[in-house]
Predict the structure.
Amino acid sequence: MADYVIPPPAVVSVPVAGGGAFPVRRVFCVGRNYAAHAREMGSDPDREPPFFFMKPSDALVLNDADMPYPSQTKDLHHEMEMVVAIGKGGKDISVADARSHVYGYACGLDMTRRDIQNQAKKEGRPWDMGKGFDKSAPISAIVPAAKIGHPGKGLIELKVNGKVTQTSDLSMLIWSVSETISYLSGLVELAPGDLIYSGTPEGVAAVKVGDVMEGVVEGVGTIRCRVV
Ligand code: MN
Protein backbone atom coordinates (compact mmCIF):
# COMPACT_ATOMS: atom_id res chain seq x y z
CA MET A 1 0.00 0.00 0.00
CA ALA A 2 1.23 3.45 -0.93
CA ASP A 3 2.58 5.69 1.78
CA TYR A 4 0.25 8.61 1.07
CA VAL A 5 1.66 12.00 2.03
CA ILE A 6 -1.83 13.50 2.33
CA PRO A 7 -5.14 11.72 3.06
CA PRO A 8 -6.43 10.07 -0.15
CA PRO A 9 -9.77 11.39 -1.46
CA ALA A 10 -12.85 9.53 -0.30
CA VAL A 11 -14.78 7.38 -2.77
CA VAL A 12 -17.90 9.27 -3.83
CA SER A 13 -20.98 7.07 -3.93
CA VAL A 14 -24.69 7.33 -4.72
CA PRO A 15 -27.30 5.29 -2.84
CA VAL A 16 -29.01 2.51 -4.77
CA ALA A 17 -32.78 2.24 -4.34
CA GLY A 18 -33.37 -0.94 -2.38
CA GLY A 19 -29.97 -0.88 -0.70
CA GLY A 20 -26.27 -0.58 -1.33
CA ALA A 21 -24.16 2.20 -2.77
CA PHE A 22 -22.87 2.84 -6.29
CA PRO A 23 -19.23 4.04 -6.25
CA VAL A 24 -18.69 6.84 -8.77
CA ARG A 25 -15.66 7.08 -11.02
CA ARG A 26 -16.30 9.80 -13.62
CA VAL A 27 -19.25 12.01 -14.52
CA PHE A 28 -19.82 12.53 -18.25
CA CYS A 29 -22.51 14.82 -19.64
CA VAL A 30 -23.97 14.94 -23.15
CA GLY A 31 -24.51 18.36 -24.71
CA ARG A 32 -27.56 19.33 -26.79
CA ASN A 33 -29.30 15.95 -26.87
CA TYR A 34 -32.89 17.20 -27.25
CA ALA A 35 -33.61 19.11 -30.47
CA ALA A 36 -35.82 21.77 -28.88
CA HIS A 37 -33.13 22.52 -26.28
CA ALA A 38 -30.42 22.71 -28.95
CA ARG A 39 -32.62 25.25 -30.74
CA GLU A 40 -33.20 27.35 -27.62
CA MET A 41 -29.40 27.44 -27.17
CA GLY A 42 -29.02 28.76 -30.72
CA SER A 43 -27.74 25.54 -32.34
CA ASP A 44 -28.82 23.42 -35.27
CA PRO A 45 -30.28 20.25 -33.78
CA ASP A 46 -29.60 18.08 -36.82
CA ARG A 47 -27.90 14.84 -35.92
CA GLU A 48 -24.42 16.23 -35.44
CA PRO A 49 -22.37 13.68 -33.47
CA PRO A 50 -22.93 13.84 -29.71
CA PHE A 51 -20.38 15.81 -27.72
CA PHE A 52 -19.39 15.48 -24.10
CA PHE A 53 -18.09 17.41 -21.14
CA MET A 54 -17.33 16.30 -17.59
CA LYS A 55 -17.92 17.18 -13.98
CA PRO A 56 -15.80 15.98 -11.06
CA SER A 57 -17.38 13.12 -9.11
CA ASP A 58 -17.31 15.20 -5.93
CA ALA A 59 -19.68 17.70 -7.61
CA LEU A 60 -22.54 15.27 -6.91
CA VAL A 61 -25.25 16.39 -4.48
CA LEU A 62 -27.43 13.61 -3.11
CA ASN A 63 -31.22 13.73 -3.29
CA ASP A 64 -32.97 16.10 -0.87
CA ALA A 65 -29.69 17.82 0.02
CA ASP A 66 -29.38 21.57 -0.47
CA MET A 67 -27.25 23.06 -3.21
CA PRO A 68 -25.45 26.27 -2.32
CA TYR A 69 -25.78 29.06 -4.92
CA PRO A 70 -22.34 29.00 -6.57
CA SER A 71 -19.82 31.81 -6.76
CA GLN A 72 -19.05 33.95 -9.81
CA THR A 73 -22.45 33.72 -11.49
CA LYS A 74 -25.66 35.70 -11.81
CA ASP A 75 -27.31 33.13 -14.09
CA LEU A 76 -27.50 29.66 -12.51
CA HIS A 77 -29.58 27.41 -14.78
CA HIS A 78 -31.27 24.07 -14.13
CA GLU A 79 -31.03 21.23 -16.65
CA MET A 80 -33.19 18.21 -15.79
CA GLU A 81 -31.69 14.96 -17.12
CA MET A 82 -31.83 11.19 -16.90
CA VAL A 83 -28.56 9.76 -15.60
CA VAL A 84 -27.12 6.43 -16.77
CA ALA A 85 -24.92 4.46 -14.36
CA ILE A 86 -22.33 2.23 -16.03
CA GLY A 87 -21.86 -1.13 -14.33
CA LYS A 88 -19.59 -2.85 -16.82
CA GLY A 89 -16.77 -1.04 -18.62
CA GLY A 90 -15.61 -1.36 -22.18
CA LYS A 91 -14.41 0.42 -25.29
CA ASP A 92 -15.94 0.48 -28.76
CA ILE A 93 -19.17 -0.90 -27.32
CA SER A 94 -21.74 -1.64 -30.03
CA VAL A 95 -25.17 -0.01 -29.92
CA ALA A 96 -26.72 -3.48 -29.71
CA ASP A 97 -24.58 -4.43 -26.71
CA ALA A 98 -24.74 -1.07 -24.89
CA ARG A 99 -27.60 -1.90 -22.51
CA SER A 100 -25.63 -4.78 -21.01
CA HIS A 101 -23.14 -2.19 -19.71
CA VAL A 102 -25.80 -0.25 -17.78
CA TYR A 103 -26.20 -0.88 -14.06
CA GLY A 104 -29.12 1.48 -13.60
CA TYR A 105 -30.66 4.91 -13.97
CA ALA A 106 -31.22 8.04 -11.87
CA CYS A 107 -32.65 11.54 -12.09
CA GLY A 108 -30.09 14.32 -12.24
CA LEU A 109 -29.67 18.07 -12.56
CA ASP A 110 -26.83 19.40 -14.70
CA MET A 111 -26.60 22.78 -12.97
CA THR A 112 -24.92 25.39 -15.15
CA ARG A 113 -23.37 28.80 -14.62
CA ARG A 114 -24.85 29.95 -17.94
CA ASP A 115 -23.11 33.33 -17.99
CA ILE A 116 -19.68 31.69 -17.58
CA GLN A 117 -20.55 29.00 -20.15
CA ASN A 118 -21.75 31.60 -22.68
CA GLN A 119 -18.57 33.63 -22.23
CA ALA A 120 -16.50 30.44 -22.77
CA LYS A 121 -18.47 29.61 -25.93
CA LYS A 122 -17.92 33.12 -27.28
CA GLU A 123 -14.18 32.92 -26.69
CA GLY A 124 -13.77 29.30 -27.79
CA ARG A 125 -12.66 28.28 -24.30
CA PRO A 126 -13.49 25.10 -22.30
CA TRP A 127 -16.85 24.86 -20.53
CA ASP A 128 -15.42 23.39 -17.32
CA MET A 129 -15.95 26.39 -15.05
CA GLY A 130 -19.49 26.89 -16.38
CA LYS A 131 -20.39 23.24 -15.82
CA GLY A 132 -18.04 21.40 -13.45
CA PHE A 133 -18.14 23.63 -10.39
CA ASP A 134 -18.64 22.51 -6.78
CA LYS A 135 -22.06 20.92 -6.05
CA SER A 136 -23.12 21.26 -9.70
CA ALA A 137 -24.58 17.77 -10.07
CA PRO A 138 -27.62 16.87 -7.91
CA ILE A 139 -28.58 13.20 -8.35
CA SER A 140 -31.30 10.88 -7.04
CA ALA A 141 -30.82 7.31 -5.88
CA ILE A 142 -29.84 4.91 -8.67
CA VAL A 143 -32.48 2.37 -9.63
CA PRO A 144 -31.10 -0.92 -11.01
CA ALA A 145 -32.02 -1.75 -14.61
CA ALA A 146 -32.63 -5.26 -13.29
CA LYS A 147 -35.69 -3.76 -11.58
CA ILE A 148 -37.02 -1.20 -14.07
CA GLY A 149 -35.57 -2.22 -17.43
CA HIS A 150 -34.25 0.42 -19.83
CA PRO A 151 -36.57 3.43 -20.13
CA GLY A 152 -36.73 4.65 -23.74
CA LYS A 153 -39.87 6.72 -23.44
CA GLY A 154 -41.77 8.45 -20.68
CA LEU A 155 -42.12 11.85 -19.08
CA ILE A 156 -39.09 13.87 -18.09
CA GLU A 157 -40.15 16.97 -16.21
CA LEU A 158 -38.93 19.62 -13.80
CA LYS A 159 -40.91 21.92 -11.55
CA VAL A 160 -39.45 24.96 -9.83
CA ASN A 161 -41.48 26.02 -6.79
CA GLY A 162 -44.32 23.82 -8.03
CA LYS A 163 -44.45 25.33 -11.53
CA VAL A 164 -43.46 23.22 -14.56
CA THR A 165 -40.43 24.67 -16.36
CA GLN A 166 -39.19 21.68 -18.38
CA THR A 167 -41.35 18.94 -19.81
CA SER A 168 -40.58 16.45 -22.54
CA ASP A 169 -40.34 12.74 -23.24
CA LEU A 170 -37.30 10.46 -23.16
CA SER A 171 -38.18 9.39 -26.71
CA MET A 172 -37.18 12.91 -27.83
CA LEU A 173 -33.48 12.22 -27.15
CA ILE A 174 -31.52 12.86 -30.35
CA TRP A 175 -28.99 10.19 -29.37
CA SER A 176 -30.50 7.29 -27.43
CA VAL A 177 -28.79 5.97 -24.31
CA SER A 178 -27.42 3.01 -26.29
CA GLU A 179 -26.09 5.25 -29.06
CA THR A 180 -24.56 7.61 -26.49
CA ILE A 181 -22.76 4.77 -24.68
CA SER A 182 -21.52 3.38 -27.98
CA TYR A 183 -20.23 6.75 -29.17
CA LEU A 184 -18.61 7.72 -25.84
CA SER A 185 -16.90 4.33 -25.53
CA GLY A 186 -15.23 5.03 -28.87
CA LEU A 187 -13.70 8.19 -27.38
CA VAL A 188 -12.67 6.79 -23.98
CA GLU A 189 -12.77 3.37 -22.39
CA LEU A 190 -15.77 3.34 -20.06
CA ALA A 191 -15.33 1.90 -16.58
CA PRO A 192 -17.67 0.62 -13.87
CA GLY A 193 -18.75 3.61 -11.79
CA ASP A 194 -18.99 6.07 -14.67
CA LEU A 195 -22.15 8.19 -14.83
CA ILE A 196 -23.57 9.77 -17.97
CA TYR A 197 -25.96 12.74 -17.72
CA SER A 198 -27.87 12.14 -20.94
CA GLY A 199 -28.91 15.69 -21.84
CA THR A 200 -31.70 18.13 -21.05
CA PRO A 201 -34.93 19.03 -22.84
CA GLU A 202 -36.04 22.59 -23.55
CA GLY A 203 -37.13 25.01 -20.87
CA VAL A 204 -33.85 25.57 -19.05
CA ALA A 205 -34.07 28.67 -16.88
CA ALA A 206 -32.44 30.50 -14.01
CA VAL A 207 -33.00 29.65 -10.36
CA LYS A 208 -32.33 31.77 -7.30
CA VAL A 209 -31.70 31.21 -3.61
CA GLY A 210 -34.74 29.62 -1.97
CA ASP A 211 -36.03 27.93 -5.11
CA VAL A 212 -37.00 24.25 -4.84
CA MET A 213 -36.42 22.06 -7.90
CA GLU A 214 -38.44 18.86 -8.16
CA GLY A 215 -37.90 16.57 -11.13
CA VAL A 216 -39.29 13.31 -12.37
CA VAL A 217 -38.23 10.75 -14.92
CA GLU A 218 -41.10 8.36 -15.51
CA GLY A 219 -40.13 4.83 -14.57
CA VAL A 220 -36.96 5.99 -12.80
CA GLY A 221 -37.96 8.22 -9.91
CA THR A 222 -37.84 11.75 -8.60
CA ILE A 223 -35.27 14.29 -7.50
CA ARG A 224 -35.57 17.24 -5.15
CA CYS A 225 -33.03 19.94 -4.48
CA ARG A 226 -33.25 23.36 -2.87
CA VAL A 227 -30.93 26.23 -3.76
CA VAL A 228 -29.58 27.92 -0.62
MN1 MN B 1 -26.93 19.20 -19.66
About this structure: The chain has a mean pLDDT of 96.
